[in-house]
Amino acid sequence: MHVILVIAIPLLVAIIYQGWRSTRKRQLFVRRLFWFELAVWFAISCYALLNGAYWLLILITIPFLDSARSTFRKSNEKDLLQNFVDDPRHCGQCEYDLTGNVSGTCPECGWNIPDENTMIEDDNWTKWWIKWEIGYLEHPQKQLHFHALLGLVSIAIGPWILLSDPHHPYFGYTLFLVALFALLFLNCAINTIRIWAYIKKQRDSSPD
Ligand SMILES: [Zn+2]
After folding, report:
1. CA of 114 to the centre of ligand 1 (A)
2. Which of 43, 116, 153, 182 is the most exposed place for a label (fewest CB within 10 A)?
3. 187 lies in which domain range?
4. Can you tell me the ipTM of this complex?
5. Would 208 be classed as within a structural domain?
6. How many angstroms is it from 82 CA to the middle of ligand 1?
7. For 47-66, how does the pLDDT look when each residue is reduced to its tens digit (9 = 90+)?
8. Which residues surround ligand 1, an ion (CB under 5 A)?
């Protein structure tokens, strides 16, 4: 059973962390994955309830509910824009072929076709191992606060798990969880530095 947990928890963390968009590309992927997530969540929940591990139940239910919300959420204007950036030949809303269209609106659904130079947040911007420098952030201050706070919370959870359950029969498993939150902290710390550098660069390059 613990092997399943070792696989499932990072999986759920990865799912919650991979992005919030509901783009065409992402919908295709997450809606297939969702049934697997549901099965994993159900199995772990049963295990947690039978063993009275309520903290585990909470730990997996929060990302699961968030994943469900994001999986079945309707596309918003930002998602449509991302569809268009991913594939500028087709309408971001209805996927109609826009080749040769100069009117500025989609003839099929009336969506306003954005400017060529429209800036959009890269869905993968938190993944520093792909690209270190952040290209564009819509709400840099908000992101800075969020990542700093998440980092602080994750560094506090490790000692809390250790102190609350030091005699767990599977101490290796406890250590695994602690290591997981340490990694989350490290990731948040790195991203906080990157966002801070981005904000500084924006300030330095602005005329006033
Ligand atoms: Zn359209």
Report:
1. 12
2. 116
3. 121-202
4. 0.98
5. no
6. 14
7. 989 998 888 888 888 878 87
8. 91, 93-94, 96, 106, 108-109, 111
